[in-house]
Amino acid sequence: MTEKYPNNPQDIRFKELFKNKDAFLSLLKEFVSEPWREEIDKGSLRRSNHSFILQDFKEKEADVIYEAKIKGQDVIFYILMELQSNVDYRMTYRLLLYIVEIMREYYNQSDEKQRARKNFKFPVVIPIVFFSGSDKWTVSLEAKDMFSSPEAFGNHVLNFEYIFIDIKGLQIEDLKRLSSRLLEVVMVLEKSQNSDELFLNIKAMLDKIKVMGEEDERILNVFVAIISKIYGNERTEDIKQIIADAKSEGEIGMLSDILANPQKDREMMQRKWKREGLAAGKKEGLKEGLKEGRIQGEIQGEIQGEIKAKIETAKNLLEHLDIATIAKATGLTVEEVEKLKFNSAVQNQ
Question: How far is the C-alpha of 191 from the C-alpha of 30, rounded, in Å?
């Protein structure tokens, strides 16, 4: 995706992606080699709700900022990620300004007495640049190279090094190692070069797409919407339709499992209880098992419990599928499904 568009739609869609904590952690664990990545306390990881807008770059703000702790210790550090689709030779300067702004905010929010003490420390800020462009990144990774003749002044020159992640060289096999299904799907789609490739990649990832949760699906839809801006509307509706169909098939399959044939359930339960009854009889040295009436009563009770649980789950799926689809998938009549939906609606009032 080499085209350049106003407002950087490439950057926008990745910003939405990395608001997802699992996708962000998956990226760190797979593409950052620093030892601290394994020590991040996932429970403490949270996205900062503070927006850092620089006076020198009013059209830009920090893309994604996370706060985290290491091994549960009260040592907070910030992970600052800048998302780039184009080479920006001002990047190191921008990162420096963001780091200073984060430090300034931390200082101003700290207790006035505490920040005057010797042991007052600022949090570490880890700058990361995530590059999705097709050009070669020719910007130095070290801040000292912003200055004229830095080598003449040794350690007296301000310096830091940012982490650089370049995704254009990644292969499909590399992406399969990702722990986040959402990140894997999105990165595969990102490798598409045109609308036809995008369509084929969507189809290839349908098994993963159809089991996504609501939040992951929302982010995926943002990706599809932005890609449609880049490629035009030629196949956008086709893409949306196959995603919707995949999700419906996944829900139908789930609903079919939930409302399986009660007779089949009964037969399975009877076999189960018979096996367990015989095993228990041998183990405990009992005589001929339990009385038939007691066995049948327990079987029926457990079957009823199983069916009740399935119906409750089916009620939850009613808001996702239309009545006709549910009736077709379960073998119920439309009237029965309507009654189930009506009763559920009355109970929720």
Answer: 18
